[in-house]
Amino acid sequence: MAGDDVFGDLAEFELDGPLSRTDKAVTAAGWWRGREAIAKRLTSGERHWRKRFAHEVDAYRVFVACPPDWRVPELFHAGETVLVIERLPGSPPHTERYPLALPEPIVTGLLDALATFAAWRPPSGPLARQATDWAARVRRYVADGDLPAVDQDDLLAAIARAPASFGHGDPLASNALVAADGRLTFIDFEFAGLYPVAADLALLGIWLSRHDPPAEQRCADAARAAGHLAAYRAMRVLWLAREQRLYRDRIADTDNHSAWVAAQLAEATATFRANAHRA
């Protein structure tokens, strides 16, 4: 598919901007019945991305039935491989996975948004289910050599003790929009669901810490203030193990990034280990 043909079957969608392509989807800005809209077409046939796309559609349907405590794009149209939603005002504060140091108000906005997610109780259904089988993931990472076997039982115990809370699951700066008035809103809910508490904070902290270590400390402090530092430490280990796997298998290593991830994982594992049996 190329050009307008990507959305040629959507008679009510008027393309008004260049197409953006990734290895899994094509997106474009336009108009839907006179309203600003974003259309996304899934182009990947991989089972993983088809499942994620279907989950995102389900998420927007849940938001229609049970509006959450933050602004979400209105759902205009959804199909098996296409999604059309309201275009919210604003632009991402950064587009890289590991952004350069962000302004303090942006970091505050990110943290506030994650706190709002964690406080929301989704209705029964797709957003009220565990996002993944964490026990199976820990065992897989240990079997593959990404985590020390000696830490397996403590990590499993920490995850089992952590309360579940709603999380975005992919709180990249590129998945946020900052409006002219400074208000920050997250979009892209393909990984949303229940996570061990502080999982979003731990993931955001990793991505911010590459170029702004104090921002990671703010994430840890937020977890501590909420009484969830132990869960934060456990999730930091697991997310760093995932980053290590991603940079080994799917993401190009630049600026010696894989070595930095490995060092962060070693430090996070040591911190978790030192505190695993504290009351």
Automatic annotation (TrEMBL):
Cross-referenced InterPro entries: Aminoglycoside_PTrfase, Kinase-like_dom_sf
Task: Establish whether keyword Transferase is in the entry.
Answer: yes
Record-linked Pfam families: APH (PF01636)
SUPFAM superfamilies, A to Z: Protein kinase-like (PK-like) (SSF56112)
Superkingdom of the source? Bacteria
Question: What region holds the Aminoglycoside phosphotransferase domain?
Answer: 31-236
What name has this protein been given in UniProt? Answer: Aminoglycoside phosphotransferase family protein
